[in-house]
Design brief:
With 69 residues, the chain is α+β, with helices and mostly antiparallel strands. 33% of the residues lie in helices and 29% in strands. Strands 1, 2, 3, 4 and 5 form a five-stranded antiparallel β-sheet that branches.
Length: 69
């Protein structure tokens, strides 16, 4: 299962995120599609608001150079 939908929204596991620069790239990629996500570098997750298009969010992260698990 790629993403989990929780009460707080969609949680995506982002592989390859290792530093603050990586975190900023993922955050910027999601903001470019209108998603204000909370990025947790330690947990390697992106928590998106309820109603986020999961496919679009995954695609934005992949296009930024990261793998979504």
């Amino acid at each position: 299962m790629f993403g989990k939908k929780k009460k707080e929204g969609l949680v995506l596991r982002v592989e390859g995120m290792k530093c603050e620069h990586c975190k900023a790239r993922v955050e910027q990629a999601l903001k470019a599609i209108g998603v204000d996500a909370e990025i947790d570098l330690k947990k390697k997750t992106a928590t998106c608001p309820v109603g986020t298009d999961e496919t679009a969010a995954k695609q934005a992260i992949v296009e930024a150079g990261y793998e979504v698990k």
